[in-house]
Structures are given as C-alpha cells and as structure tokens.
Write a structure and sequence with these properties.
The chain is an alpha/beta fold and about 375 residues long. It folds into two domains: about 130 residues, Alpha-Beta Complex (Aspartate Aminotransferase, domain 1); about 220 residues, 3-Layer(aba) Sandwich (Aspartate Aminotransferase, domain 2). It is about 40% helix and about 15% strand. It has 15 helices and twelve strands. A seven-stranded mixed β-sheet has the order 2-8-7-6-5-3-4, with helices on both faces. Strands 9-12-11 form a three-stranded antiparallel β-sheet. The chain is globular. Homodimer. This is aspartate transaminase.
Length: about 375
C-alpha cells in the first residue's frame, strides 16, 4: 500500500459526522447547503439524460460549456479567454487539483501551501512527489507578508497552491497580496494553482479577483472553478480549469488519464446555468449573506467571539478569549453535551496549528440554524 494514503488517519470530519449521527446532533460541520439547487438547472440535466447524448463527450468538455465558461468569466470577472485553448472541464475541482499537481510537479519539486488549507491539498502534493513548504496564516485577517513568502520560496519552488476565497478561514486575499505573490512567482519561475471554487460565494458587495486578472500571473497560473459551489449542487462534481495554452496542453494530458471526461448531461445543464442573469447570482449571495448574518448575530448573543466571514459557507469563532485552546476537545464536547457538530480549524493545518478556532457551516435553513443557536446559547452559560 502507498503509505501516503494507507497511513492517513480517520479525518476529524468523519469523526464529527459520526458523532453527530450517533447523538442526533445538528450537523454544522459538513460544507453543503440544505437547498437542493436551482430547479431549472436540475431540469436541464434531467432532460439531457433522456433526449441528449450519453456516450463519451469530448475529453476537454462539451464545446458549449467551454464557451459558456469563457463568456461567464468575461462577464463576471473581466477575463478574456480562448475557450478552445484555455478552458477544460473536469469531474470536479478536486480532480482538477490532482491533475494540475501531477502535470506540474516532478519528485523533489517544492510546493508552497497556505495553511489552514483544504484537506485534500497535502496528500495530493505528496503523492505527486512534491515537497511541501508551509505559510502559516492566523486569525483574524489570515494574511501573508513578504517575509512569509521569502521564508518558503527557494530555487526548487515550482508550484504555489492557493485557495481564494479561503476555506476554512472564510477570508479573501486582496489584490495587494496576489500582486506580492505574483512578484515572487516571477522571480522564482513558479506556477500558481488557484482553487477559486468559492468565487461566487462572496458577501458585502465584494467582487472576486482571479489570479488570472493579475498581470504577472496571467501566463503562469491555473484557475480552478466549480459548478457545484456556484449552483449549490455539490454532488455534481463539474469543475472548470482555465490556464494559458502552454500550461493547458500539459494539464489536459493529466486529465485524459484520470477521469478522461465528465457526464455530458451535467455539462449541458451547467452550460445553461452559467448563462443565467445577474439576478440569480446576486440572489444566491443575498440568501447566503442573510443566513450568515442570522447565525453571526446568534453566535454573538450566545457569547462567542465571531471572526469576519467574507466568503464561503462558513463562519468561525475564536475561543482564545474564553481561555479555550483545544478546539478538538471543544468540538467533541459540543456534540456530546450541546448537540451541535462543528469542525476544529486545527485540522486544516499540517504543523504549528491555530488551536482555538472552530468552524460552522451556515448554508442551512433558518430552522436548522435557529435550532443550533438554541443549543449554542447554553455553551458559556453552562460554563459560567
């Protein structure tokens, strides 16, 4: 057995979900919404199964979806893309990440990672032969500095893997941070793989800024998006990969020998969905922002110190001011004694973790959130 995967422990996500099932707790740990997704997009997928093509679609993706991706990013992010040479469709963003790392890394190459990080990043980097170099981000702003980058970039740096907006921090890297990263990548000849699956799930009037909009990164970056996150259809696993032609040529070879292609009916439905008017996307963000605000207010009332949530489905609380610095133990107690499941953010670190921050998912119905708040109000009351 390959030890990278064989030796992986049971994840805290599995532990918390299992505890939630066993205790009947309200599960705010897993990052998926209660909403079933837009009915018209789902209807398009159903129609395409019955009356559409169900054999192998083109390896790079249906032409209409690749065109829709290019048009969508031009409209929403002011990116000019060639759908024939710069857009590829994958079976989800995780496949896109795996393929990019396999295509861009040789054994011994160094990869810069920003922690906290999505849990798939490190195993995929290691399996591709990469040597991880960590930048540690800390609350409340989760920013990196020039000194942070100088400490991890070396002549062996080949790839930088970044998540923007950042899960689990629910934060967004501003333009000046991306510009700084671009200068380092130029200096060291590195390629950025940018996981931008939360690009539409941003709040308070913000607009997503892609790495491809940074001049120094336009020809040395891979942008990854997700229909699952855009349309709250997380089980569909339809990803978008965008990169300059020279990079895409290699990425496509990795994709060819991973999944080769993606269900054509889902591709057809996503192509339709990406053409929806601005009102849909604004409404989706407004609904999630309202849920965020509802849950934020309830957490504050319950006595939690709540960190800013600029994007994603998540909101974090910092327990340090309450003298709590073991987020894993806190989450286990939260499930067992208060009936709410959350995720300790230390699980998203490979080393020197922040151990006082806990993540909740607010992409739930009001009754779910209010039910959780009714229980959470007792956490510090009981302690007092």
């Amino acid at each position: 057995m390959n030890p990278i995967f064989a030796d992986l422990p049971t994840t805290v996500f599995e532990v918390m979900s299992q505890m939630a099932r066993e205790t009947g707790a309200i599960n705010l740990g897993q990052g998926f919404p209660d909403d079933p997704g837009p009915v018209d997009v789902r209807q398009k997928a159903a129609e395409a199964v019955i009356s559409g093509w169900n054999q192998y679609p083109p390896m790079m993706g249906l032409p209409e979806l690749r065109q829709a991706v290019a048009d969508h990013y031009r409209h929403h992010q002011n990116l000019t893309l060639d759908p024939q040479q710069e857009v590829m469709i994958t079976s989800g963003a995780t496949e896109a990440l795996a393929g990019a790392l396999m295509a861009l890394i040789e054994p011994g190459d160094e990869v810069v990672l920003f922690q906290p990080m999505y849990d798939a990043y490190l195993p995929l980097v290691l399996r591709a032969g990469g040597v991880p170099r960590f930048v540690t981000l800390r609350p409340p702003h989760w920013r990196f500095t020039e000194e942070d980058l100088a400490a991890v970039f070396t002549p062996k740096t080949r790839v930088v893997l970044i998540n923007n907006p950042l899960n689990p921090a629910a934060s967004i890297f501003p333009a000046e941070d991306l510009d700084l990263l671009g200068r380092f990548c130029q200096r060291f000849g590195a390629t950025v793989v940018s996981d931008e699956v939360w690009e539409h799930v941003v709040f308070d009037g913000r607009r997503h800024l892609s790495v491809l909009a940074i001049d120094s990164l336009r020809d040395r970056a891979v942008k990854i998006g997700s229909a699952g996150k855009i349309f709250s259809l997380t089980g569909w696993k339809v990803g978008f990969v965008v990169a300059a032609p020279a990079i895409m040529k290699v990425l496509s070879k990795a994709h060819q020998f991973l999944t080769f292609t993606t269900p054509p009916n889902l591709q057809a439905a996503v192509a339709y969905g990406l053409t929806k008017d601005d009102g849909y996307f604004a409404g989706m963000r407004a609904d999630l922002q309202r849920s965020r605000d509802l849950f934020h207010a309830g957490l504050v009332q319950a006595g939690f110190r709540v960190l800013p949530s600029a994007a994603t489905y998540f909101i974090n609380v910092d327990l340090a001011s309450a003298g709590i610095n073991d987020d894993v133990a806190f989450c286990k107690t939260l499930v067992a004694e208060h009936g709410v499941a959350a995720i300790p953010v230390s699980a998203f670190y490979a080393q020197t973790p922040v151990t006082s921050v806990v993540r909740f998912c607010f992409a739930k119905k009001d009754e779910t959130l209010n039910g959780a708040l009714d229980r959470l109000v007792n956490v510090f009351a009981k302690a007092a």
